[in-house]
Amino acid sequence: MSVHTSPLEQPGTGDAGGMNVYVSQTAMEMARRGVEVEVFTRATSSDQPPIAELAPGVLVRHIPAGPFEPLGRDELPAQLCAFTSGVLRAEAFHEPGYYDLIHSHYWLSGQVGWLARDRWGVPLVHTAHTLAKVKNAALADGDTPEPRTRVIGEEQVVAEADCLVANTAVEARELIELYDAEPHAVHAVPPGVDLARFTPGSQPRAREALGLPANALVLAFAGRIQPLKAPDVLLHAAAAILRKRPELRERLVVMIVGGPSGSGLDQPQALRELAVSLGVHGQTRFLPPQPGQALVDVYRAADVVAVPSYNESFGLVALEAQACGTPVVAAEVGGLPVAVPHGVSGLLVPNHEADEWADALCSIALRPERRAELSANAVLHAQRFSWRRTTDLLLDTYAQATSAFRRALELRSEVAV
């Protein structure tokens, strides 16, 4: 279940991001193992076919629910009844027992999965991806808190799911401490990275492909443009760098790759206006979300990739960049300390102060020997995370959830007798 975003969408804009990558990559890896996967997502256009093939063995079902247009996540709870009806109707065309297990992604999908689980008599595995209580505890300036509706919805899904999949041990602890999840029901399964696509390569060729000078000092951000992801921190850091090192003005290039999303849609030009006000508009290049090889070129072209988010359950961008051999400077929040081991493949910054970010970025970008060491370590670190490994752990979790669900059914039957 992936109600609010489809694995067919381009990550980096709208609500498409790391979750899309997670769903598509794990689904395709499962299909390669002989597991048939169907992804239920909301139809956002009348041109979308009812069923599309993502890959052999992976079908995407577009369920009509509300208008044929993208809706904000705050508008989607009103469409959950219609979406659930479409999901149940699709299952009704099959013999009972057609689906073996439901894996819901994000709390909206968990609400649908909870009802489908009870109707179909199969276990529900749920991955939150982000948690409202965690996000509200670390809001960016001017960002909008997650509503009480979401908090209650998450609490309900945590209470009802047969198994909860967390991206890291940190997230697992948050589920237990903030949402009263049963410890035995929580499994930490780290996401992966496409190690066949994201590989080290020629920095000069990548810069040529992007039209960047060979001698540039390149700092990059890739992700959705919204306060939570904090691309503004990189712009403030760039301004601080130029204040300290004005001779770098001719060489510095800041790449911001992504599209407006979430609360960032309210002021889609705010980041460009900030670059102007900080005096770094001449050094900043804004690119739309980049697919495939183009995104690989962004990572390879950069001296450092910045991940300054206020909260990340993991941070797939950090892994992708490291797999390409590019060191990462990341905020010391959420799962990022797992994705970026401090001083090994990059640096963690304990706050969002411009001067500290400027110093961290320069300590890598302006020191070739250190950058080379971190780059080599980054590749080795990223190789520990593959979608194959993630899928192995997910399938083990599915097996455990299924066994526990059957035992619970048997116990209830015995009590009834």
Your description of this structure?
The protein has 417 residues and is α/β, with parallel strands linked by helices. The chain contains 15 helices and 13 strands. The chain has helices at 18-32, 80-92, 107-120, 132-136, 148-160, 169-179, 203-210, 231-244, 270-278, 292-301, 316-323, 336-339, 354-365, 368-382, 387-416; strands at residues 37-42, 51-55, 58-63, 102-105, 124-127, 163-166, 186-188, 217-222, 252-257, 284-287, 304-307, 328-331, 346-349. Strands 10-9-8-11-12-13 form a six-stranded parallel β-sheet, sandwiched between helices. It has a four-stranded parallel β-sheet with strand order 4-5-6-7, with helices on both faces. Helix 6 (169-179) links the parallel strand 6 and strand 7 (186-188). Helix 8 packs across helix 13 and helix 11 (316-323) packs across helix 14 (368-382). The longest helix is centred in the last third of the chain and has 30 residues, at 387-416.
